[in-house]
Amino acid sequence: MPLDFASLRPATREFLARRARGEGLLIDGEWRKAASGNTFATLDPATGSELGQVAAAGADDVNDAVAAARAAQVKWAATIPVERARILWKIADLLEANIDELAEIETLDQGKPLFVGRWAEIPGAINQFRFFAGQAMNIEGNTIENSINYQPEGKQVRSWTVREPVGVVAAIVPWNSPLVLTAMKLAPALAAGCALVLKPAEDTSLSALRLAEIMVEAGLPAGVLNVITGLGGETGATLAQHKDVDKIAFTGSTATGRAVLDAAKTNFKRVTLELGGKSPSIVMPDANLDLAIPGVANAIYFNGGQVCIAGSRLYVHRSIHDQVVEGVANYAKSLKLGHGLEADTQMGPVVSLRHAERVEGFLQRAKGAGATMLTGGERTGEAGTFITPTVVTDVTPDMEIVREEVFGPVLVAQAFDEPEEVIAAANDSEYGLAASVWTEGLSNAHRMSSEIKAGTVWINCHAMYDPALAIGGVKQSGWGRDSGKQALESYLEWKTVCAVV
Ligand code: NAD
Questions:
Q1: Which residues form the Aldehyde dehydrogenase domain (predicted)?
Q2: How many distinct structural domains can be found in the chain?
Q3: Coil, strand or helix: which one is 165?
Q4: Which atom of ligand 1 is nearest to the CA of 471?
Q5: Per-residue pLDDT for 35 more than 90?
Q6: Hey, which of 263, 357, 402, 489 has its CA 20 to 30 A from 440?
Q7: Is 17 inside a domain boundary?
Q8: Is there an atom of ligand 1 within 6 Å of 202 CB?
Q9: Are 88 and 216 in contact, with CB atoms under 8 Å apart?
């Protein structure tokens, strides 16, 4: 059934009328069309209905956006920290005041159940702005004792460091959790005194446009945030190669991360990369299964598995393997799939037809290689891009389904006998983004958290996010961290000053 626009909130309808008609580039404080006039459609993945047209920015638009950011950055960096903090806090307040509309926009464009945006991701975005409002007033250099002994008679050599913003940042973000992932770039960059050009993912541009409106309303000066929508290989690639961009803050796939890294070579841009994952959930024999079974199920099925840190590889001790895997399969079967705007929906569609076909491809190849679909494993629904929540068994460690990131509701389950064996299996991956360990034993918790190679290890939980907790990966899961003081660091340079006084 096509989307019933009349059922949407008036604020959402007004937003779509205002910004989803191809006039959605924000450059130097002005909303405009792409210079070429080109647009592309953005769809509701649950029904396939067109939500509107988004501007496809070309090279001229990218140049204008970077030039606007360059001009604005100097003034923004000179703004006293308390003023930057005030604006960041105001953005958070306005996001909160508009949270129901934002959640509806995110659900329409991305497909996620309303509760995911309304109660998890958008509050997460709000907290990013509040945390980094504080950090804006917490930027420090050092004074350094030096051993320079050739100063003129009667003089001393003093040395110190100051922190300066990196400059103009290109923020390039994916489609799975658009608002919170965008906030994870914008909030620390603005706190540090950087100006930005934001490139949202082509499947989910809308919430970035509403966020940008809110940031303008909060008093962010013109040019400090510019938004250019468009396709990755065109708008994204042009932005990544631009020689007047100082840093690329990228979240997306490992393959695109490689392209971004190549593009950064043009002028040795600073680069942070938050990339893919194939994160293990490990259930030890002493786990509390009342916690672990729904915990590992939620680790993969939340947001339809379209989460970078999704627990997509399940390792269960052989003594409890069947009980846990059956429990997770029952959880998967119980999930209500539907349009994200329906109140009882627990899992929505995947983001696009292209992505649904990609996930289906993984499932077909896994079946061909001899894996069993204990539950799920197929497309479902008359319209939209729904995939049934899936548990895959009878796999071997070399299979594609065990090694590659599917980015859908697909869990691969395997048994283990010894802790050494599961640590080796968990680490047998090109990725190293996250892991969870389910155990009541202190020794297990310490040993596993130290020996698993990942940016984050959760014990008896999964996907606990907080703006104060750095998130990011080792190995091919990326470079650098979002959130936490580490994120602020990545938008700052060190300057050393040495003075004879
Ligand atoms: P993607 O790499 O296809 O796209 C990400 C962004 O890059 C989009 O805005 C896209 O338009 C742009 N892009 C594409 N080609 C480009 C190019 N050549 N130059 C510059 N920009 C380009 O990723 P996706 O499919 O949108 O998102 C899913 C991926 O993101 C998954 O691999 C997931 O694990 C990863 N992800 C990682 C994290 C993390 O924090 N580590 C968080 C969320 C998602």
A1: 31-497
A2: 2
A3: strand
A4: 40
A5: yes
A6: 402
A7: no
A8: yes
A9: no
Report how far ligand 1's centroid is from the alpha carbon of 215 (Å).
24
Whether residues 287 and 396 share a domain: the answer is yes
In a domain? residue 1: no
Name the CA radius of gyration of the chain, rounded: 24
- Among 308, 357, 430, 465, name the best residue to mutate to test ligand 1's pocket (greatest count of ligand atoms within 8 A of Cβ): 308
Query: Does ligand 1 have an atom closer than 6 angstroms to the CB of 279?
Result: no
pLDDT in tens, 261-296: 999 999 999 999 999 999 999 999 999 999 999 999
Distances in Å between the alpha carbon of 332 and those of 293, 410, 412?
Answer: 11, 10, 13
What's residue 151's pLDDT? Answer: 78
**Under 8 Å between Cβ of 212 and 229:** no
Cα 308 to ligand 1 centre (Å): 10
* pTM of the full structure: 0.97
Distance CA(215)–CA(224), nearest Å, equals: 10
Q: Based on the residue annotation, tell me whether 342 is a catalytic residue of this protein.
A: no
Catalytic residue among 101, 106, 121, 274: 274
d(C-alpha 223, C-alpha 31), whole Å: 11
> pLDDT tens across 405-445, in order?
999 999 999 999 999 999 999 999 999 999 999 999 999 99
Beta carbons within 8 Å of 496's beta carbon, 6+ residues apart: 159, 160, 161
User: What is the distance in A from the centroid of ligand 1 to the CA of 77?
Assistant: 29
Q: Are 437 and 404 within one domain?
A: yes
Q: Write the pLDDT tens digit of every residue in 442-486.
A: 999 999 999 999 999 999 999 999 999 999 999 999 999 999 999
Instruction: Say yes or no: 347 and 258 in one domain.
Output: no
By DSSP bridging, strand 431-432 and strand 474-475 are: antiparallel
82 Cα to the center of ligand 1, angstroms: 33
Task: Say which CATH number the domain at 322 has.
Answer: 3.40.309.10
227 lines ligand 1 (CB under 6 A): no
